[in-house]
Amino acid sequence: MSEAIVDIKKLWTVFPNGDKKAVVHKDLDLRVERGEVLSLVGGSGTGKTVLLRQMLGLEHPTQGEITVLGRPAAELGKRGAASRVGMLFQQGALFSAFTVLENIAFPLRELKTLPHALVREAAMVKLQMVGLGPDAADKMPSDLSGGMIKRVALARALIMDPPLLLLDEPTAGLDPESSDSFVALLRSLHRDMELTVVMVTHDLDTLFELSTRIAVLAEQKVIVNDVPKEVVAFPHPFIHEFFLGERGQRAMELLREYPFTV
Amino acid sequence: MEDATPRIDQHDTPQGRLHVVRGAWTAADLTGEAVWEALTAQLKGLGAGAGTSAGWDLEQVHKLDHLGAQVLWNHWGRKWPEPIKVEPSQRAVLETVAKFSAHAPAPRSKPGWSEPFILLGTRVLRLIDHLKGLVRLIGQLLLDIIRLIKHPQEGPWRDLSGHLFHIGATALPITALVGFLIGVVLAYLISQQLRQFGADAFIVNILGISLIRELGPVLAAILIAGRSGSAITAQIGVMRVTEELDAMRVMGIPRGFRLVMPRALALAVVMPLISVWTTIAALLGGMLAADISMDVTPSYFINSLPAAVDVANLSLATAKSVVFGILIALIGCHYGLRVKPNTESLGQGTTASVVTSITVVILVDALFAVLFKSVGI
Questions:
Q1: pLDDT at residue B48, rounded to an integer
Q2: How far apart are CA B188 and CA B206, in angstroms?
């Protein structure tokens, strides 16, 4: 059995909802192993993003334990956290007052041990690894396109080469072309940097392009966690609807009709 | 478990000195303060070492990431040392670093002799730009008011009443408190001086004129500028950051009519009222302090106040307050609309708005004092 990077045991998440309580997760178990790309899939309100935030220690579960890289998730936000987990937020969450290079260098610079020149160089390497030119270094986040923001945010998440990368809707809001190139970039980085990736996505293309495993959230737990082929074949109404339902069919039809309608 | 400290061991071999790199060369390990200091010292020592190098051996490295590779690469003077023993995965990391380090970031050029002049020019141009913007806002406000008079049913009345409440009603406690305390302090200080001349009764004249004509309106305006001017700038600035301003424009909703005018009108109405309120609180404070420190009774104070302060002072104070209110609103909106979509600009805009509106309030007050020096005194 290989090493567990993320290990979630008997997780309960309960939100107060007026006088009633909304149970989001109930006895949820999830295990992510080294080198996997695990996609979290589920209908809206099934707590995918909540789960991701709990892995980061941004939110605390009502009950149960989450272990990330052998430590409780709540201990993550300490000095040098960027060397353990990288997170790509949906909107990028770049610091709007910093230039691109300052954004990327920020986690490393804040540790205040390494000389500035070295930090700058390390940031320049990451900037170019995510496919941006050196001329982008002095731009401000407000001058960037959506795809570039995602790339800069990814470079910032990777500045300290963390073994675990979390992605929240990595291709949402990108046009198909930048979405494809971003997926290709993620794939090559996963290969080159031996990353373990956990992501939340609704985009079927991204899902099948990247995932080595898919975990489906429904009925307050993970109903199946397996390789994509097995997940699609799993008998459950949500999975049927999500992968083979109208949306999947429509996507396929569009694919077929596309050359003729244009 | 082996020692993860990044370090370089040296072995003397017949071919020369062999450098064996050991430990974990990762961002997490390198950023430890003690570790980094020890390693820098060691790397410096290596350069000074005598004898020929028999190359580098990286196969003992526990883990190598991009930062570790960068440190080694820089130490090698950005070229491959010969000979080198390295694993394929390490070579890949080093090659990535080597490829992207080729473009070393150019250092910023040093400021030349022309820099101060350019700076001065930018400042002058920026000032002119601000003045233009303000003039445009005033013009737009006039046009909007004309439109409101022509079509009163189209007016943003709900907004206006909301602003009246938030800018006016909620400011009552703080303005009363500040006004009262200023009145007490002023009366106490003046009474000390007046007693020396036995001119106790004149405290009514001094307090009456100074509070009603000057301090009341200015104090209220400064408080409101700090409280509501900043709020106006922040509200409109956040609307810029979240693209709400663009959304309004796209829907054809004029922002002057919908955002600037209600605030300007609300402040024009609220400012004189707050000013009167502050003045009354300050007079009360002054009356109390005069009674305690000089035995000037409240009934005497109230009875002699109309004779001491000409009615023209009241109209002057009210007119002044209306102008202050409109200026605070316009300056707040002006800076709010100029905010660029980032957090830093929002902070700068809010600061500039408060500082400018307080300065302008005091400047305009001085202007009023000069222009109306023969009125009411």
A1: 56
A2: 12
Helix or strand or coil: residue B322?
A: helix
DSSP string, B102-171: TSPPPPPPPP-TTHHHHHHHHHHHHHHHHHHHHHHHHHHHHHHHHHHHH-GGGS-HHHHHHHIIIIIGGG
CB B223 within 8 Å of CB B175: yes
Beta-carbon separation of B66 and A97 below 8 A: no
User: Which residue is listed with tokens 């610091």?
Assistant: A95
Contact A154, A88 (CB under 8 A): yes
Q: What is the pLDDT of residue A185?
A: 83
Separation in Å, CA B246 to CA A10, B155, B184 = 47, 21, 49
What does each C-alpha distance from B83 to B52, B94, B95, B143, B144 come to in angstroms? 12, 15, 16, 80, 79
pLDDT at A262: 32
Question: Could you tell me the pTM of the whole model?
Answer: 0.67
Distance CA A158, CA B296 (A): 75
∠ CA B269-B236-B149, rounded to 5°? 40
Q: Which residues of A touch B28 (CB under 8 A)?
A: 80, 83-84, 160
pLDDT band at B106 (very low <50, low <70, confident <90, very high): low
Cα separation, B238 vs B24, in Å, equals 46
From B35, which residue of chain A is nearest by alpha-carbon distance? A113
**Element (DSSP H or E) covering residue B100:** helix B88-101
Strands B16-25 and B61-64: parallel
For residue A106 the two structure tokens come to 């920020």
Burial of B113 (0-12, 13-18, 19+ CB in 10 A): exposed
List phi, psi (to 5°) of B194: -65, -35
**N-term to C-term CA, chain A:** 51
**Domains in chain B and their CATH numbers?**
7-101 (3.30.750), 142-371 (no CATH)
Assign residue A72 a region (left: φ > 0; alpha: ψ between -120 and 50; beta: otherwise): beta
Most B CBs within 10 Å: which of A120, A124, A159, A195, as the mutation test of the B interface?
A124
| Contact residues of B toward A, CB < 8 A | 26-28, 30-33, 36, 65-67, 70-71, 74, 92, 96-97, 99-101, 103-105, 340-344
Percentages helix, strand, coil for chain A, rounded to the nearest 5? 40, 25, 30
DSSP 8-state assignment for residue A169:
S
Distance CA B331, CA B325 (A): 10
For strands B61-64 and B84-85, give the pairing.
Answer: unpaired
Best residue of B37, B78, B246, B342 to probe chain A, by most A CBs closer than 10 Å:
B342
Cα dihedral: A89, A90, A91, A93 (round 10): -10
Distance CA B256, CA B336 (A): 12
Provide the token pair at A207. Answer: 């899902």
CB contact under 8 A, A108 and B27: yes
Q: Residue B287: pLDDT band by 50, 70, 90 thresholds?
A: very high
Which helix (H) or strand (E) segment holds residue B36: the answer is helix B33-48
A142/A95 Cα distance (integer angstroms): 10
Q: How far is A189 from chain B (nearest CA, A)?
A: 11
| CA atoms of B305 and B302, how far apart (whole Å) | 5
